[in-house]
Amino acid sequence: MRDKLMQRWSTYEPFFVALGDKRVADIVITNHAKLRYVDRVRQDNNDFENIAAWLWECLKQNRISPYYRNEQDVYLIDGDLVVVAEFAELPGEYDITGNPLHKMIIVTFLGRMSETMELRDLKTYYSWLRHSRRMTLVKNSRKRR
Predict the structure, then answer these.
(1) Contact 113, 103 (CB under 8 A)
(2) Phi, psi (5° rounding) for residue 76?
(3) Separation of alpha carbons 70 and 66, rounded Å
(4) CA distance 106 to 25
(5) Torsion on CA atoms 21, 79, 37, 1, rounded to nearest 10
(6) Residue 88: strand, helix, or coil
(7) How do beta strands 74-77 and 81-94 pair?
(8) Residue 87 and residue 89: Cα distance in Å, rounded?
(9) DSSP 3-state helix, strand, coil percentages of the chain (rounded to 5)?
(10) Which of 118, 108, 117, 125 is nearest to 34 (CA)?
């Protein structure tokens, strides 16, 4: 997702954006993330290129921050939109100092905390979700006997 045009000739512009200890040089949107984006974020401008361009601008403007301090996979955009992302090294791509560059793989958009109260504490929400699914399975197994 390198910037497509440069402002002046002979000007070095970095083609990666630092996010924590990662140097993001590319953004990949999964099909699942695209579907969730349409359902939970915006219905218009929903092709892969527009979503990636919007995320790239968010990265450049430092609008993306980690959801938890120690976790590397859940991020907040503008302090409201919860996004799950993974990172993979780009083979053969390094910055000037020799550090590897990464691609940011957007797994899913969980939604906005302002609209879904459960997203305010993900650990509790996922714990509750696992428990409720387990209890549903237990109830269903009782019915089959």
Answers:
(1) no
(2) -110, 135
(3) 8
(4) 13
(5) -40
(6) strand
(7) antiparallel
(8) 7
(9) 35, 30, 35
(10) 108
Contact 104, 28 (CB under 8 A): yes
The pTM score is 0.74
Per-residue model confidence as pLDDT tens digits over 3-27: 544 444 545 555 888 888 889 999 9
Closest CA to 76 of 112, 126, 105: 112
- Gap between the Cα atoms of 141 and 119, Å rounded: 30
CA distance 30 to 46: 12
CA–CA distance from 59 to each of 8, 11, 22, 135 (Å)? 22, 21, 12, 40
Bridge-partner residues for 86, per DSSP?
A: 105
Express each pLDDT in 101-127 by its tens digit: 999 999 989 888 888 777 777 777 767
